[in-house]
Write a structure and sequence with these properties.
The protein is of the alpha/beta class. The protein has one domain: 3-Layer(aba) Sandwich (Rossmann fold). It is 34% helix and 16% strand. It is built from five helices and six strands, in the order ααβαβαβαβββ. It has helices spanning 2-12, 24-34, 51-61, 76-82, 96-110; strands at 38-42, 68-73, 88-91, 123-125, 136-139, 145-147. α2 crosses α3. The chain is globular and about 35 Å long.
């Protein structure tokens, strides 16, 4: 139901929605088929699957390409601690204006452009402002590489596929 609302809101904002997937297998297949500019990934999917599992599979198969990754969650600590790659995280609950701003920022980062606006409160950058390559430091509690969050750049509180 929330995915349907998000789809409607994105369409009203002028975006093309490639589709909605509720599990990793379907999301990976959809991303490979449609090659979206930005994937809006809820952190918690059905069962024990997560949005980070989608990114991990796309990276492992070489299919991630320049897809911008926007995680949407109320559990932002998990994203900062356990993701290997992503451009930004949007905190739940969020406004449609914040969603639109986050999508623009992620699109800029994925294309290697400078961020066009200062992220508002509730949007954490996970990639450096001028690049989209992951920056790994150490290991996460699950044994995988940990991503160094870039929210410390001063943006954090500075203002679907």
């Amino acid at each position: 139901m929330l995915a349907d609302f998000l789809e409607e809101a994105l369409l009203e904002q002028g975006h093309e929605v490639c589709g909605i997937a509720s599990n990793v297998r379907d999301a990976v297949a959809l991303a490979r088929l449609k090659r979206p500019d930005v994937a809006v990934l809820d952190l918690q999917l059905s069962g024990n699957e997560t949005g980070t599992d989608i990114v991990d599979r796309l990276m492992a198969s070489g299919d991630l390409g320049r897809i911008g990754i926007l995680y949407v969650t109320g559990e932002t600590g998990f994203v900062h601690r356990d993701t290997c790659f992503g451009h930004a995280c949007l905190h739940k609950p969020y406004s449609l204006a914040a969603l639109e701003a986050a999508i623009r920022i992620v699109r800029d980062l994925a294309c290697g452009r400078a961020v066009s606006q200062v992220p508002s409160h509730g949007i954490d950058l996970l990639a450096p402002p001028a690049a989209s390559a992951p920056r790994r430091t150490g290991t996460s509690e699950h044994g995988g590489p940990a991503l160094q969050p870039y929210s410390s750049v001063g943006f954090r509180h500075g203002a679907s596929i």
